[in-house]
Amino acid sequence: MRLSMIAAVGKNRELGKNNALLWNIPEDMHYFHMMTRGHVVIMGQKTFEAIGMPLKKRINIVLSYDKLFSPQGVFVVKNKQEALQLAYEQEKAGEIFIIGGAMIYTLFFKEAERLYLTCIEASFPEADVFFPPYEDIFTKKVSEKKGNDTMFSYTFFIMEKL
Ligand SMILES: NC(=O)c1ccc[n+]([C@@H]2O[C@H](COP(=O)([O-])OP(=O)(O)OC[C@H]3O[C@@H](n4cnc5c(N)ncnc54)[C@H](OP(=O)(O)O)[C@@H]3O)[C@@H](O)[C@H]2O)c1
Prior knowledge:
The protein is an alpha/beta fold. It is about 20% helix and about 35% strand.
């Protein structure tokens, strides 16, 4: 079983603002769906609210301290240990994905073995949440693929810890 994180970041590890993304990159959205489809995904309550519904064709695990938070179609857990235990029970395809946001990437940073990171070649000074510093930790590059659209150039990296 592999525990992976998947995220898209700006040049300064920007993740989002006002509980939303800072860009709309269809190819990255497609990539996210392709990589996570059929797997267990783990996210924070704010990211779940930002997405607005359970992700289809995935088992959704949402972390929240709020005992009254119980939306349809997702498993709600109250700590990291519960999230991991449930994810390991439910995952049938060999890879669990941590899908954010900032709090949850930080929470699982130590355990995560692989990072799928889309690096966007732009800065977003308005950002209010950031991916944790990863450059000295995920030092093994597994693959790298460039992409671009009318607004942005970006690179899809897959990285692991040495
Ligand atoms: N660029 C990307 O790839 C990407 C990916 C995902 C998200 N994002 C962005 O990231 C932002 C959201 O990130 P965020 O850091 O603000 O929020 P988050 O990590 O999505 O969720 C935080 C919430 O998770 C719950 N939580 C956190 N730690 C917990 C723990 N140890 N045990 C139980 N529950 C815990 C709490 O929910 P309660 O308050 O309910 O207790 C907390 O408020 C948005 O802007 C979103 O668009 C970007």
